[in-house]
Amino acid sequence: MPGLERSPEIRPPEEQTMAIVRVAVAAPLPELFDYRLPAGWLDCEIGRRVLVPFGRGRRLGLVVDRQPESAVADHRLKEIEHCLDDGPLLTPQDLELLNWASAYYHCPPGEALFTALPARLRRADTDFKERRRGWRIPIDARAVDDGLLARAPRQRAVWSILQAHPEGIDEASLREQLGDCRAALRSLERKGLLEPASAEVPLDDGSPPSAGTPAPLPELNAEQQAAVDRIDQTLGFACFLLDGVTGSGKTEVYIRLILNTLARGRQVLVLVPEIGLTPQLAERFAQRIPVERAVLHSALAERERASSWLRAARGSARLVLGTRSAVFTPLPELGLVIVDEEHDVSFKQQDGFRYSARDVAVRRAQMTDCPVLLGSATPSLETLRNAELGRYRHLRLRQRAGGARPPRLLLADIRSQPLVTGLSHALLTRMGEVIEAGNQVLLFLNRRGFSPVLTCHDCGWISVCRHCDARMTLHRGRGRLVCHHCGDQADLPVHCPYCESPDLRPLGQGTERVEDSLRQRFPGIPLARIDRDSTRRRGELERVLTAAQAGAYPILLGTQMLAKGHHLPGVTLVGILDIDHGLYGSDFRAGERMAQLLIQVAGRAGRAELPGTVLVQTRHPNHPYLQQLLRKGYGAFAAAALAERADAALPPFSFQALVRADSREEQFALEFLERARGHAIALAHQGIQVWGPAPASMERRAGRFRAQLLLQSPERAPLHALIRVLLPALRGLSGNRRLRWSIDVDPLEML
Ligand SMILES: Nc1ncnc2c1ncn2[C@@H]1O[C@H](COP(=O)(O)OP(=O)(O)OP(=O)(O)O)[C@@H](O)[C@H]1O
Ligand SMILES: [Zn+2]
């Protein structure tokens, strides 16, 4: 090997055996690449980032293995250009998990690895340091007497800090210490007493959240205590399902387990489905858990996220709370994993590296040999099935905590009833009573915007999207038509674009329209609308929720953002405006989703001393799903739904993977999938079913025609064996550059 011959004297003999590093390059390529260590290098450890020559350019990569030699011919082997980190970013255990996930989800290793890193570390130009705007005292001013500043105390404060930092200090740190000091800085600069400098700041030195003030813990009830005991007694890996009705105090159980795990010197990872849930939970943890915490979600600034990640990886943050991608955070002393609202589909990434954070969490706990807890009031059918099979241990909390009573569910049959923007007389009357009594109402409508379509009353024109098989939603506040599928926007037309009639009318209602109507109906009553449009501004959701929790709004109106996990003690009435589309969805999981959403929204009612009522408006009051949920609850519904899935051999009684394809030209995606089908049938063992290809239910989206091919198997292993041989064949097929395709293992959404 030429690399070795050039510098034989530098390397000790045992190091000479590892001259080749295998690199996962940050690109969606299925293979790993071999590189040579440059002459004179002793090592480049597994888990470090490297810069490597690649094609005509260079790329960032991560060292995943070292080997004595390579199968690649010597003259074709290139050398690593740079090794970026002082030490490994990922440990062999972290890599083992990512390798497993990359193999299980059939995602290229480089793509999986770099998805798991915070964005800051996906770029080559950072080395855990950041250059920031800063200041220092010019050399010729260093001898100046600060008596000069006797009459300017702020300037003097700045000056004395700067004197202690001749190398310069960054402005943000100055402001942290002194508050806003921009004016003082400007004056000092004018006097020639300081000059701009750039300062280097280590990335993981973000101020950690302060330790909590351990507030008194409420005494656990018998069921909660039993759950804590069962989990605490576990040595090593076990997966628990904490199946607790809404308001049963699951979070209290988490807190107790977290404290116990921390006391044993281990770290804890808590996953939540939504960014919106992190501030509330973070706040609850902050009050009760006196330890350094790190929060990780996509709304954080890149710097904060990298800082959280590094503090977790270095072991200084003991408790990590985050959304989906936090499941890959390195935690050297991990002792417990908690997945809250485990049924939530947000745990599944829907593009690129299509992993389920819940399932990866279970696998991670198994690899780490520690317990994992999946919590929900409405467990997914997959998880319930695993509990039934004894793979997961089923723990139940049947009662609401602290004496709160379960909410009363009522159906309001709205067939042939007059509705005011979708609200029945029965609902409006009850709302009036609740507001009168000084309590809160929560209205749930899972549709944002003013109305889902604008139509011409004269010719019947409707506002369709140019790029999708979909209608454009009317957003009156913004004065725009917006497609919720591709994001395309248009000005609100004044005349019908077809017949020029001025009589354009909104059809149906979204949250914006219901808000308008309620403000007229209940003038002067504070109302908060909570959906993606109303909470666009950073910190807005948190602000509204905190105020809502304190009772500031008698009326809360929102989409599913409002449905999940929030504790709103003043809510005594929940109105569910439109659940019917969930009863007849085309996806086989539509019923399960509807039931989960209904029970979760309903669970916001009556969580404190006051009893709660839930009014579900429907045109199908006799629908068996609704009847079952109302009379017997989620458990009975889930048992019946599982029996149906068993009959139909659908998941969790079988395993699926979906090959999706899309193209600008209508035929390419289908043609590709036709050929994929041929390969799949030729390669598959008996028992594997190949369905399709079929166009997606919304065939055209963002200008692309979409179709899919479904692979299904009664066993997991043969399905994965098939995918392993199928993928190389598909890569060979997709010569057409304008075609995009992907594989989705354990798909949650059939599009
Ligand atoms: N043992 C207890 N004694 C008194 N109050 C309790 C107890 N456990 C929990 N609570 C209180 O009950 C309320 C609901 O608890 P929590 O939010 O933990 O429920 P949850 O099961 O997580 O709810 P959900 O699934 O609906 O989000 C909280 O105000 C909590 O402080
Ligand atoms: Zn569109």
UniProtKB/TrEMBL annotation:
Q: What is its EC number?
A: 5.6.2.4
Reaction catalysed by this chain? Couples ATP hydrolysis with the unwinding of duplex DNA by translocating in the 3'-5' direction; ATP + H2O = ADP + phosphate + H(+)
GO BP field: DNA recombination; DNA replication initiation; DNA replication, synthesis of primer; double-strand break repair
Positions of the Helicase ATP-binding domain: 231-397
The record's keywords, sorted A to Z, are: ATP-binding, DNA replication, DNA-binding, Helicase, Hydrolase, Isomerase, Metal-binding, Nucleotide-binding, Primosome, Zinc
Query: Which cofactors does this protein require?
Result: Zn(2+)
CDD domains referenced in this protein's UniProt entry, alphabetically: DEXHc_priA, SF2_C_priA
Keyword match Zinc: yes
Q: How is the cofactor bound?
A: Binds 2 zinc ions per subunit.
Function field: Initiates the restart of stalled replication forks, which reloads the replicative helicase on sites other than the origin of replication. Recognizes and binds to abandoned replication forks and remodels them to uncover a helicase loading site. Promotes assembly of the primosome at these replication forks.
What name appears for this protein in its UniProt entry?
A: Replication restart protein PriA
Which species expresses this protein natively? Halochromatium glycolicum
Could you tell me the gene encoding this protein? priA
